[in-house]
Amino acid sequence: MKKIFFLIIASFAMMYSCSKDKDIDNPNKGEITIEADESFKSVSEALVERYTALNPKTKINLVIKKEDLGLLDLLDKKVRVIVMSRELSKKEKEAFDKKIDLPWKPARFAADAVLFVVPKDSPLESISIDEIYNELSSDKKRLIFDGTNSSNLNFIAQKFHKNPSDLKFSIINGNENVAEQLKNYPDKIGVISYNTISRPFGKEAEKLRNELKVLKVIKDNKAYDVYGDNLKDMTYPFTRVLYLLTNEAYYGLGNGFIRFSCQQLGQIVVEKEGLQPYNIFKREVQMR
């Protein structure tokens, strides 16, 4: 009788284990949610679209949320993967180690940049690092960011070793809104992500490129724009590297998406977005 009882218990345990395994996603099947700042919306959408097209049994819900809030959601395990651009602080890394119990390993996949833009008819052509710093301390609040807790503001604050709350600036929510409404504020300078206008054949990106002038940034008496090798070589002063973070402790859909984004197919998507792929570079072959 006891033997029969233990056999029944063992059977139920095996059935439970099998049903539980069915619920665990893998790189080719399942559903997860990832979050990305609005500044990286275009490249994030493109990567998700391509990955799910190649893996039709997967569903990735892309939620656009401010960078800082996305990090909190990752730590609270509300989402599986987030896109980041700035370095985490010491306290944030400690919180990650404590809550996630995984080594902090950023999966770098693209070089983006923060741009300073004005309307096409503006007489301005460039802005220096010192001028940017001074504007962030001025009550005139000439620099327009896309909101608090945003990646653009966080990145610029980090570059100047400041807390975002210590800076003075204006706000128009959303990178595209900043770009579109800038013509109404001729004395202001917009601060947007390169990815907002980088997609070569995107209609909205092309429209914004036609309306905006990207200011060159002067550093050490030399002017840099974001185009050409300045992004690849990270010589443009406000180049930033986008990376993915996950709380997934196994090789599931989250890690599958990360691997895809960092390998050749994902890097081709990044390049088609007009950004610099982090892990593959153009190679020139000379035929003689």
Automatic annotation (TrEMBL):
Any one Pfam family match given in the protein's UniProt record, by short name: PBP_like_2
Range of residues in the leader sequence: none
Domain of life: Bacteria
UniProt keyword Signal present: yes
Gene3D superfamilies: Periplasmic binding protein-like II
Domain PBP residues, every copy: 25-261
Swiss-Prot/TrEMBL keywords: Signal
Keyword Signal: yes
PANTHER family: PERIPLASMIC PHOSPHATE BINDING COMPONENT OF PHOSPHATE ABC TRANSPORTER, PHOSPHATE-BINDING PROTEIN PSTS
Designated name of the protein: Phosphate ABC transporter substrate-binding protein
The species this protein was found in: Epilithonimonas hispanica
